[in-house]
């Protein structure tokens, strides 16, 4: 099939590349001509495992083409995927200007039947708006060309996007025309061989499915973070609780890791957008609003714990930060907890010395050159003379640490671990303070004097960390 993809971000580029890899002829179009020029030379602007090799291979085999010319893009494919961004508008709703602009572009240039596919995450009712936009433009052109619009939300995760696209559990397609199903079946046939993954449904249900999926995952994270905050205050260890509930098959282990809040380009904006959609139809989405506010508080908890470790004085202090990306295996820093932390450190007069295996360039792009931000070449180069260490992302490379060495390098021997990477016993044995998430075994750390007495629960303030102790 000949397929056009609008947008060469995480979703568009992965979709286009994987469909080319499956044997289709694909043309990817982006308004960002720098991106397109780079991609034509095989330069992939994002970090996504396995993607660069696939792009290069399919470009070389001439199944994957790039263009910045909208007319060429519209002329190329019978299938026209819209995979552009849908950032939050000021009121939290999804901003559809990019999606509608692509709809207009397609209608302006199309000369024959097109199937327009909404792959971007868009609110319920967007397919109707895309149809209207196309019909209006065709009317202005005074032409009568058939077209269909369908919804095909994407469920890939950054960090394993290629794998998720190729081996996803389901392919949801919302459509209301008999022309759509055979075309979408042909498009996805290479990915639908082992078992039937295609789920056809009405368009509005498909649009809502995407938001429901992300809202459910965000809810699991916020729920676990709520439990971790309770664990800190009740003298329990959330890691035990996690194992205790995850073993129940009705609950399961996935997405119940406590941490420093969810970030990225999807969960925050999609939860907000769904809550906004609810408001628009006169329904107060209490649960979604709570998920959002728990997450907001959780992201702030890193700085609260850091402040406690440094007795509230960050002026002139240097904070080592491990992990800038919102999660491992990506360079994406959109809504990353690290950003909230760094910005709070700077506002309090502190400096940041940071390391991330992939997101350093992105960090520089976002914050530029500044005196209070140093980017270290290696993880351990962040430590010497730093006042404390904060871990924001659970990269594998952060899991093994020589705690005794780290104890010698840090001025204040404190680790604020937003991802519960370590065994508290090992950290403590090296003489470090360990501010983890919901880990109450730290409560048994002896207070100064080392008499083995438990820290009194009264030390745990309403907003305080689990483990504010002197060794
Ligand atoms: N990133 C994810 O993990 C993920 C997963 C599932 C769904 N989604 C959804 O997919 C959509 C795209 O997300 P993304 O992360 O790939 O976005 P992105 O910001 O990485 O990329 C969007 C691209 O669209 C381009 N663009 C904007 N207007 C254009 C136009 N008129 N014509 C052609 N290109 C245009 C931009 O230049 C940019 O390259 C969003 O709705 C998002 O919610 C994202």
- Let me know the average pLDDT: 92
Helicity level: 40-55%
**Whole-number radius of gyration?**
25 Å
Low-confidence stretches: 441-471
Q: How much β-strand is present in the residues?
A: 5-15%
Helix-strand makeup class: alpha/beta
Major sheet details: 6 strands, parallel
Q: How many angstroms does the end-to-end distance come to?
A: 66 Å
Quaternary state of the chains: single chain
> Order of strands across the widest beta sheet?
3-2-1-4-5-6
Count of individual helical segments = 16
Bound molecules: nicotinamide-adenine-dinucleotide
Number of strands: 14
Shape annotation? globular
Order of helices and strands: EHEHHEHEHEHEHEHEHHHHEHEHEEHEHE
Description:
A 6-stranded parallel sheet has the order 3-2-1-4-5-6, with helices on both faces. Strands 11-10-9-12-13-14 form a 6-stranded parallel sheet. It is an alpha/beta fold and 471 residues long. It is built from 16 helices and 14 strands. Helix 1 (10-21) packs across helix 7 and helix 12 crosses helix 13. The chain is globular, with a radius of gyration of 25 Å. The structure holds nicotinamide-adenine-dinucleotide. Nicotinamide-adenine-dinucleotide binds next to helix 1 and helix 5.
């Amino acid at each position: 099939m000949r397929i056009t993809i609008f947008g060469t971000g995480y979703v568009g580029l992965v979709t286009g590349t994987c469909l080319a890899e499956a044997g289709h002829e694909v043309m990817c179009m982006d308004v960002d001509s720098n991106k397109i020029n780079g991609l034509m030379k095989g330069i992939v602007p994002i970090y996504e495992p396995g993607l660069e090799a696939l792009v290069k291979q399919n470009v070389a085999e001439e199944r994957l083409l790039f263009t910045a010319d909208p007319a060429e893009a519209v002329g190329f494919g019978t299938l026209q995927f819209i995979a552009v961004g849908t950032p939050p508008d000021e009121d939290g709703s999804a901003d559809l200007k990019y999606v509608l602009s692509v709809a207009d572009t397609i209608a302006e240039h199309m000369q024959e039947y097109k199937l327009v596919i909404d792959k971007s995450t868009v609110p319920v009712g967007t397919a109707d708006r895309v149809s209207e936009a196309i019909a209006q433009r065709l009317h202005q052109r005074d032409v009568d060309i058939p077209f269909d619009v369908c919804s095909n939300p994407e469920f890939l995760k950054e960090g394993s996007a290629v794998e998720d696209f190729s081996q996803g559990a389901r392919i949801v397609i919302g459509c209301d025309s008999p022309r759509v199903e055979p075309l979408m079946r042909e498009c996805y046939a290479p990915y639908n061989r082992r078992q039937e993954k295609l789920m056809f449904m009405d368009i509005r249900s498909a649009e809502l499915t995407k938001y429901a999926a992300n809202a459910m995952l965000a809810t699991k994270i916020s729920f676990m973070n709520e439990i971790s905050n309770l664990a800190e205050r009740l003298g329990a260890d959330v890691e035990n609780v996690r194992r205790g509930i995850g073993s129940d098959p009705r609950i399961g282990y996935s997405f119940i890791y406590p941490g420093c809040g969810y970030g990225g380009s999807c969960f925050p904006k999609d939860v907000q957008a769904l809550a906004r959609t609810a408001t628009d139809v006169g329904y107060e989405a209490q649960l979604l609003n709570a998920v959002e506010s728990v997450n907001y508080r959780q992201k702030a908890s890193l700085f609260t714990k850091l402040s406690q470790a440094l007795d509230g004085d960050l002026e002139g202090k240097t904070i080592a930060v491990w992990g800038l990306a919102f999660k491992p295996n990506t360079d994406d820093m959109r809504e990353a907890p690290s950003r909230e932390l760094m910005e709070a450190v700077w506002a309090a007069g502190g400096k940041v010395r940071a390391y991330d295996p992939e997101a350093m360039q992105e960090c520089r792009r976002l914050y530029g050159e500044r005196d209070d931000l140093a980017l270290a070449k290696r993880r351990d180069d962040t430590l010497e003379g730093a006042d404390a260490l904060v871990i924001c992302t659970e990269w594998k490379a952060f899991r093994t640490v020589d705690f005794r060495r780290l104890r010698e390098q840090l001025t204040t021997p404190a680790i604020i671990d937003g991802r519960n990477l370590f065994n508290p016993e090992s950290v403590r044995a090296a003489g470090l303070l360990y501010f983890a998430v919901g880990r109450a075994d730290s409560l048994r750390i002896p207070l100064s004097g080392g008499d083995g007495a438990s820290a009194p629960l009264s030390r745990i303030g309403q907003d305080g960390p689990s483990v504010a102790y002197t060794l």
